[in-house]
Q: What sequence folds into this?
């Protein structure tokens, strides 16, 4: 387990070739020891303690060219800020629905911060364990909750 306790519950991870490929909510994964495990664990603990605003852990999410561009766009959203599905749709020249589906398929939520993407009229969804409540928790942690009111 990467994080046994966090504001959004226990989190594990899978990895390949010294990079995280997936976060797993509520259970452990294949990443159970070694330098990558130690780095991710330390960074996630610091993030949940409010002491880290940008992850340096190597990531390797699988996906199409669009998904890779989408992950890069999510990674460019600064800590404590949000964008709308429409903002990202315009940036990537796709529909807002495509952005919503890509958010839902993000295999490395939190580190690739899909929680920072909102609908034009509210929170939108969240595919992590705990759903929208987890999204709100992460936004409050990043002090972006004022954007929700």
A:
């Amino acid at each position: 387990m990467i994080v046994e306790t966090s504001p959004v519950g226990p989190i594990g991870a899978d990895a390949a070739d010294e990079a995280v490929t997936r976060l797993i909510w509520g259970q452990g994964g294949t990443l159970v020891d070694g330098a990558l495990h130690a780095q991710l664990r330390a960074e996630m603990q610091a993030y949940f303690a409010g002491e880290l605003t940008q992850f340096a852990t190597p990531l390797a999410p699988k996906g199409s060219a669009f998904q890779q561009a989408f992950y890069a766009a999510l990674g460019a959203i600064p800590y404590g800020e949000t964008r709308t599905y429409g903002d990202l749709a315009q940036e990537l020249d796709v529909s807002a629905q495509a952005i919503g589906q890509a958010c839902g398929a993000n295999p490395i939520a939190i580190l690739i911060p899909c929680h920072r993407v909102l609908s034009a009229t509210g929170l939108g969804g969240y595919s992590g364990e705990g759903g929208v409540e987890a999204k709100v928790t992460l936004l409050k942690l990043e002090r972006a909750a004022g954007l929700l009111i």
